[in-house]
Amino acid sequence: MSTGKTKKAKTPTKQGRGRPRCEEAHKKILKAAYELLDELGFMDLTIEGVAARAEVGKPTIYRRWKTKAQLAMDAFLSGVSPEIAFPDTGSVEEDFREQMNKIVKLMNSSKGEILASVVGSGQADKELIETFREHWLLPRREDAKRIFQRGVERGELRDDVDAELAIDVLYSPLFYRLLLKHLPLSETFVDEIIDVVFKGLVTYS
Questions:
Q1: Three-class SS of residue 146?
Q2: Which DSSP string do the residues of 55-107 spell out, in sequence order?
Q3: How do residues 14-38 score in pLDDT, each as one tens digit?
Q4: 95: in domain
Q5: Tens of pLDDT, residues 168-185
Q6: Which of 115, 124, 136 minimizes the C-alpha distance to 43?
Q7: Domain span at residue 31?
Q8: Whole-prediction pTM value?
Q9: Are residues 54 and 86 in the same domain?
Q10: Could you give the CA distance from residue 61 to residue 25 in angstroms, rounded to a whole number?
Q11: Which residue pairs, CB below 8 angstroms and at least 24 apart, start in 40-44?
Q12: 5 belongs to a structural domain
């Protein structure tokens, strides 16, 4: 027998509302940290300042990054990683030339000042320089070593190439000029480095 009561249909619950908000907060934090790195440098960057700029609480930041160094490096890399990827031109020498010119372009921009600040501050901050090595230096060295191996497999480079040494010789002059600013960073400078270094790397028939 009917009681005259009808069951109220359940309103479907909305799914997935947390993730977009989480991703939005993540992007806002990285953007704020990057802006403050540019404006203040690493030493004067604070979690409090980032939280205020991003309009989030400090716990929201600390749930994602344990330290200021980790946050600063992630913020920097989020802005520069797509700009400095290696191409595949069919020539290892040209791959390095193009990628090094991308690095020079970055170093000559405001992002270069952030990079210089991070490297310079890292000399007095062990955690920062370790984070820099882990997240910036080592992944890019691995990329470069893969390009060298590609050159060996193609027969462009000698099979006894010391990739670690070659990477140091190619890229150290860029950082030397970035930090000391005694001479300009330019495409001409990259060409000169490439011409000198690859004379000792290429195979001769």
A1: helix
A2: T--HHHHHTT-SSHHHHHHHHHHHHHGGGG-----S-HHHHHHHHHHHHHHHH
A3: 444 445 568 899 999 999 999 998 8
A4: yes
A5: 999 999 999 999 999 999
A6: 124
A7: 18-66
A8: 0.79
A9: no
A10: 9
A11: 41/114, 41/117, 41/121, 42/68, 42/72, 42/117, 42/118, 42/121, 42/125, 42/128, 43/117, 43/121
A12: no
